[in-house]
Amino acid sequence: MSSSCQPQSPAVAKSEVVVEGECPLLAATFAYWDNILGPRVRHIWTPKGDQVMFLSDGEVTFLANHTLNGEILRSAECGAIDVKFFVLAEKGVIIVSLIFDGELKGDKNTCALSIILPQTELAFYLPLHAICVLRLKHVIRRGRIWMQKGYNIISVLSLEIVSIMELLASMKTHSVPEEIDITDSVLNDDDIGDSCREDFLHKAISSHLQTCGSSIVVGSNPEKVNKIVRTLCLFLTPVERKCSRLCRSGSSFKYDTGLFVQGLLKDSTGSFVLPFRQVLYAPYPTTHIDVDINTVKQMPPCHEHSYNQRRYMRSELSALWKTDSEEEIAPDSVLHTDQAFTPDLNIFQDVLHQDTLVKSFIDEVFMLRPGMSLRSSYLAQFLLLLHRKALTLLKYIEDETQKGKTPFRSLRNLKTDLDLKEEGDLNIIMAMAEKLRAGLHSFVFGKPLYTSMQERDVLATF
To answer: Of 70, 86, 145, 173, which has the most beta carbons under 10 Å away?
Structure first.
């Protein structure tokens, strides 16, 4: 890159972030459009340490300005956040920029929060793009309120920027490979009792599928945790595996919102505390698996999860708006200014519904000889069966509702016609279909709002 690009004057404020391991992120920037001087960079974050590629402050400023050029006539709804993806081959970088409106010094400005990576990291970053964008959108919502009140947005943005740098660094070294050898999983054991009990494995895989493939595995033994992580990842697509992470021996990663499967180690006291806010902001409900005591718990289904997530988000933003101090409100604090909404801190519940799909698969897969490709082929056929059932369910609902024009009222017929009479089987196929068509749960169960487990069970009988 050209060395002639000099930083703007006055010098841009800069923060160096200490990240363990190699961080593929070159820099993050917060810029805004000045009506007199044009694009201006207000803050730069860079990882501290050795990097494969180095950008000077002037080069980072030049790239950040590039994302705001042409945004002076931006026309968007109030509160909209536009995501733009730039691949600058001549500079050898990619830029992910989130464009939004905010108030700086009493004036409405077009702002951009951007992350810059080497173009060589494109294949690594793309599977994680949706996760990073989702998390940056959350922090922008908080930041816009901070700007509106005249407070310093940098302190708010820094929390998530540092977290994303740590996430990318951890994924660089501990992400689950795209292809998993079944010999590295529990499914390769000679007998189901070799490494875990049959009922525990059955419940773990079943709940994992019921929560759209989103699970956390905690324990004290990193080898045991990672073996379960690899086992669960066998039921994910190759792209979803790239969004999963093994645990690290010696010290634990923190929980990261958006990953499909992640292994976490307990501390010296034998416990691991999950941050309520981050878990609730995950795109899908999550299964919690403890390999030390062989317990499996899960969050409520997608429609309840989405409802709680929206209510919590509104409550959090409302609390930020009502605060009279610039002192940072702890991101993990439970905010419920809406007295009608009191979130349940014990969001994980027992797996209540049995299934036949996973039970039959486990019984039959261990009848095949280990150490051969038979079990891998049988697993592939099982996943194909689930996928076809999910597509059939979508088509069934589409036909019954005239492509969504009328409410769905024949759940009992669906369960009979598609051979999903067991509640667990229905949950698994519904979760597979949810990933293909977002919002399916809310549509099927009648209300886009809150539907309790008791109401859901009543609906399922009709």
So the answer is: 145
Total length of the chain: 462
The DSSP line for 21-63 is S-----EEEEEEEETTTEEEEEEEEEEES--SS---HHHHHHH
Q: Per the structure, how many domains does the chain have? A: 2
- Choose among 77, 102, 112, 116: nearest CA to 152: 102
| Residues 305-352: tens digit of each pLDDT | 988 888 888 888 888 888 776 665 555 554 444 444 555 667 898 888
Q: What are the C-alpha distances in Å from 134 to residues 81, 282, 290, 396?
A: 11, 9, 27, 31
Strand, coil or helix: 110: strand
The last residue of one of the domains, among 119, 150, 174, is 174
pLDDT tens-digit series, residues 180-230: 999 899 988 876 665 567 789 999 999 999 999 999 999 999 999 999 999
Q: Could you list the residue range(s) of the whole structural domain that residue 154 is in?
A: 13-174
Whole-angstrom distance, CA of residue 434 vs CA of residue 454? 21
Nearest Cα to Cα of residue 190 among 359, 379, 365: 365
